Task: inverse folding
């Protein structure tokens, strides 16, 4: 068994400096959890399969080691990595890691301080635990999808943000941080069962706790906060762009009417659902009379909770977006900056360019104590692959 010759350290003073994460390669949710940890200073090592490329694009600040996990030597290398790791991110269905000999029982026996995070769609237990699924399915079973979109049209999934990323990757990373904090008291790691279905349901807490407030009395899409109210929806402008309106409170609604030059006396009561569609039609006609830029000018100094719906070609031109440095240029594309912003130890994303499969195989194996000749043998045997060796196979 090889032991590390030295420990990877960050020169930057970030919140998660010194935390080592082993991320078993997956798509979307687990890579996002790894990104959140990497952006705040953790060393994240992605364990890739021996393949020439991956479609994982959430790779900022990570390292890649490529291994053939069907080979016992490769499994031994992962065990070696986990022996000195703080966190393991598991993206597979229940039982996959166990079949490789890398389950929680084996790895936590090897390293009792290991936080073993398992991120799946339906969780480690229950009738659906082994079912395949995607974001839309996890939202469906959680009850969240039934609240999205406008009846009688079918429910509308909000791209794959809610279950994959908010209820999945983000909630998983939150669990990791909670377990790491608890470890400072107990000295022990633990297993995290993070399910995208669970996370999506958790995110909908307000929808459930606000049932008695009278804001969810109508069908889906016909309520105050789901686009039913004329004062809480988006309107098209003369140039085919949109303005968002969130004038819920009476004083904001009054300011909205004044800016739109709509006589309050000509409208029914703001909170009369029976009049909402006719009021929305009035608003829609008015918004179509000016371009988005003209409406931005109208509402520039008006507190009515009205803002332009910025598209990708506009967002970087916005003064507030620029002031907050909300997006960064990376490899010719825009990437959102990390959030939230810490005052003493802020995230400083490491721009590493596009991460290639096996880009750091030699470095990581060397840190684990393998000699150059041993590394060459592992590559020759097909146990490991470097970015260079993968190119030679193309």
Result:
């Amino acid at each position: 068994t090889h032991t590390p010759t030295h420990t990877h350290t960050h020169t930057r003073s970030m919140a998660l400096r010194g935390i080592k994460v082993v991320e078993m390669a997956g798509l979307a949710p687990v890579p996002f959890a790894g990104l959140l940890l990497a952006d705040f200073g953790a060393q994240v090592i992605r364990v890739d399969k021996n393949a020439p490329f991956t479609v994982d694009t959430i790779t900022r600040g990570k390292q890649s080691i490529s291994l053939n996990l069907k080979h016992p030597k490769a499994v031994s290398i992962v065990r070696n990595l986990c022996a000195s790791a703080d966190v393991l991110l598991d993206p597979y269905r229940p039982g996959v890691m166990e079949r490789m000999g890398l389950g929680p029982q084996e790895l936590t026996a090897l390293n009792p301080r290991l936080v073993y995070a398992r991120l799946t769609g339906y969780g480690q237990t229950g009738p659906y635990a082994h079912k395949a699924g995607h974001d839309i399915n996890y939202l469906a079973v959680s009850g969240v999808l039934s609240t999205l979109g406008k009846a009688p049209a079918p429910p509308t999934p909000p791209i794959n943000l809610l279950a994959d990323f908010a209820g999945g990757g983000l909630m998983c990373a939150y669990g990791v941080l909670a377990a790491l904090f608890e470890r400072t008291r107990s000295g022990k790691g633990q297993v995290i069962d993070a399910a995208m279905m669970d996370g999506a349901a958790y995110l909908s807490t307000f929808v459930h706790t606000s049932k008695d407030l009278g804001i969810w009395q109508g069908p889906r899409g016909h309520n105050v906060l789901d686009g039913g109210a004329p004062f809480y929806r988006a309107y098209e402008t003369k140039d085919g762009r949109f303005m968002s309106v969130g004038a819920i409170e009476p004083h904001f609604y009054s300011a909205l009417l004044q800016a739109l030059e709509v006589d309050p006396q000509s409208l029914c009561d703001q909170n009369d659902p029976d009049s909402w569609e006719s009021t929305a039609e009035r608003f829609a006609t008015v918004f179509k009379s000016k371009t988005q830029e003209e409406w931005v000018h109208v509402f520039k100094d008006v507190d009515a909770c009205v803002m332009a719906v910025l598209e990708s070609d506009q967002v970087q031109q916005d003064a507030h977006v620029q002031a907050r440095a909300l997006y960064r240029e990376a490899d010719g594309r825009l990437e959102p900056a990390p959030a939230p912003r810490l005052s003493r130890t802020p995230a400083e994303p490491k721009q590493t360019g596009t991460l290639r499969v096996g880009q750091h195989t030699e470095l990581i194996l060397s840190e684990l104590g393998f000699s150059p000749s041993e590394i060459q043998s592992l590559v020759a045997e097909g146990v490991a692959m470097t970015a260079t060796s993968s190119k030679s196979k193309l």
Q: What stands out?
A: The longest strand covers residues 43-49. DSSP finds 15 helices and twelve strands in the chain.
